[in-house]
């Protein structure tokens, strides 16, 4: 009889998959808006490293001259992005799921070990319950980035009526720059996320659809993980003294 | 530092033993539901894409934009002022975008035409407008395209203008205002509609000076609207006619798919 581990509650799966098309629409419509005035680039002295974006990029995606359309989609789907985000954060608190997500002081050391393991510079992965340190930091950061996008978004959307918010995030132009930088952040996260999902394999991927992961007793990797995760001791262990 | 006891350890994930068949059934069910749910965003996209245009934008999008306007108008406050800057921050060469409504020469006999009622329009000269108190404003002009520029404008408050000539009120009831102000260029090539609350904002000007000089034709001579808490597209250049209405006056860019309100 196979043993399954219940990994993602139904609500988490819904939040995750609703966010996917909504964020896609926000990034795409944001690009239609950004096209109308696209001053950002990364320069090194006089040398332009990256220009956001070259004309060929806009042409390939067909975003030219679609500002009105971009604004319409953006100002409609911002509500879904906001609502999904607020419900998600609320749910993680109510359900206690936040304990799997919020990094603690061990997470950063663990993240380094995980990265070394991912790069093939370390033989074993450190043990973890649901997400390893690197995942916790990444997923928690993405959540904070979502908050940042909403705040800077409204700061640009209503800089007079929400003048305090616009001032809080550094003014109109700074808010727009942060809003754009966060979007680039989502795209980079998405690329790494997809790569990691492919690496982690099918059983991991299907758990974000079914909610559970099937443990195979004959799987050497799985057996090792099970051994490394002992039953919760009656007294919580003290924080690793190496860090104190 | 005393080592803290972690009182909220990360809980273990619950595990259970299930027969192979049950696992397979639950997996299929979840994937089936997932496939079904995936048709929802596709359906939403097709529904919006195939909707008729309402006033330049797809109907469902326009509906939400209008709802956004309702929300914005409920928290709109004339007490919220656009941030102002010291005079020396103003651009020496103010940017200007767009020639709609300016393609025909300014009529030599230009007068500001204001509809009061059918029989009795008001015609005003620049001298009439200049008798109103002049206000100067150095603020960050914002274009719907995303750029902004600090500019220095001078002119009469639209609120003062409406007050002086008793405009915008309903016939027979001087205390009730129309909901909208419509403005158009003399050649009717460009036109905007503004909600009355925004028109009465203390920073909304009938502007005739830019950087202390009479504004140029390209910037909307002889008089234009500066409504700093709306995007530039609502700042009608070269006003020919002003009128009042309880329904939204037609709006050049809203007809081309933009949000009608465009309030900042």
UniProtKB/TrEMBL annotation, chain A:
<dbReference type="GO" id="GO:0009055">
    <property type="term" value="F:electron transfer activity"/>
</dbReference>
<keyword id="KW-1003">Cell membrane</keyword>
<keyword id="KW-0349">Heme</keyword>
<feature type="region of interest" description="Disordered">
    <location>
        <begin position="220"/>
        <end position="244"/>
    </location>
</feature>
<feature type="transmembrane region" description="Helical">
    <location>
        <begin position="177"/>
        <end position="198"/>
    </location>
</feature>
<keyword id="KW-0812">Transmembrane</keyword>
<feature type="transmembrane region" description="Helical">
    <location>
        <begin position="12"/>
        <end position="37"/>
    </location>
</feature>
<protein>
    <submittedName>
        <fullName>Thiosulfate reductase</fullName>
    </submittedName>
</protein>
<keyword id="KW-0249">Electron transport</keyword>
<feature type="domain" description="Cytochrome b561 bacterial/Ni-hydrogenase">
    <location>
        <begin position="8"/>
        <end position="211"/>
    </location>
</feature>
<dbReference type="GO" id="GO:0022904">
    <property type="term" value="P:respiratory electron transport chain"/>
</dbReference>
<feature type="transmembrane region" description="Helical">
    <location>
        <begin position="71"/>
        <end position="91"/>
    </location>
</feature>
<feature type="compositionally biased region" description="Pro residues">
    <location>
        <begin position="231"/>
        <end position="244"/>
    </location>
</feature>
<dbReference type="InterPro" id="IPR000516">
    <property type="entry name" value="Ni-dep_Hydgase_cyt-B"/>
</dbReference>
<dbReference type="GO" id="GO:0020037">
    <property type="term" value="F:heme binding"/>
</dbReference>
<dbReference type="GO" id="GO:0005506">
    <property type="term" value="F:iron ion binding"/>
</dbReference>
<feature type="transmembrane region" description="Helical">
    <location>
        <begin position="137"/>
        <end position="157"/>
    </location>
</feature>
<dbReference type="GO" id="GO:0005886">
    <property type="term" value="C:plasma membrane"/>
</dbReference>
<dbReference type="InterPro" id="IPR016174">
    <property type="entry name" value="Di-haem_cyt_TM"/>
</dbReference>
<dbReference type="InterPro" id="IPR011577">
    <property type="entry name" value="Cyt_b561_bac/Ni-Hgenase"/>
</dbReference>
<dbReference type="Pfam" id="PF01292">
    <property type="entry name" value="Ni_hydr_CYTB"/>
</dbReference>
<dbReference type="InterPro" id="IPR051542">
    <property type="entry name" value="Hydrogenase_cytochrome"/>
</dbReference>
<keyword id="KW-0408">Iron</keyword>
<keyword id="KW-0813">Transport</keyword>
<comment type="similarity">
    <text>Belongs to the HupC/HyaC/HydC family.</text>
</comment>
<keyword id="KW-0479">Metal-binding</keyword>
<keyword id="KW-0472">Membrane</keyword>
<keyword id="KW-1133">Transmembrane helix</keyword>
